[in-house]
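Appendix B, Record 12. Input sequence as logged:
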Amino acid sequence: MQQKSDEKFPRDLTEREKDWLFTALPENKIGYKKYRDLIESLSVIGYGRFGEGNLVLGDTSDVVDLEDPSSPIFAISNIAFEEAHIYVTIHEEFDDQIEVDIKSVNGEKIPDNLHQTKIWTYSTWLPGQKAPSDNSFVREIHLISNELVLAIAPAHKKIWVYNSKSGINHFVPVTNYYNELMILLANKDPETALNPGRLFTNTEDFTDEQLAQGFLVYNRHWNRIELDYHLFEKKDDQKKKTIFGPKKN
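Logged structural output:
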């Protein structure tokens, strides 16, 4: 959202800003509801590193540290109006602050009078569904049937993991995940090992087991979501062997 250059902080979120942020946070999913409640309690304390439309939410006594990198993306929504198209991004909470983006896709000023035509978000996706907005193909790898599901959407170039307990679809950074997968597969061929786009252009090259194990290795090293790794142990000659290897220091 376009903001005045002389804007004073801290300030409350406007009702319009709050409504737009909440399009990415469905109230009927406990993990997203937690963020809705948290955002309700926070104030806009300043701009982030990317200026207008890139806002930081926190306590009124907090200050924005522009040296901090952005935390991972937590939720995304797209809101289409006859007059504009708005892209909403909410980052994960970090040090009791939440960075958000409310921006026009084309960078133009968002008018006051708007007529909404469509909203879509990854946050409402459930196993068995197509990709949001365009109903394109989503490959599903069920680590735990319908409870923990790795989703790869080739047309969107997005990967997320669905957690039924929280209802959250956690985005998975493509490059980090692919690097761990290549290490797991002992692939040292630069042409393929350095090309994470293959997850979307050549997804059939990978088996469900490889993709599942790759995620477990990735998550073991990067702590994307909390998992009980005992659920993924295999028994071999009465001895348990994990399929994800030791944790890196």
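The chain has six helices and twelve strands.
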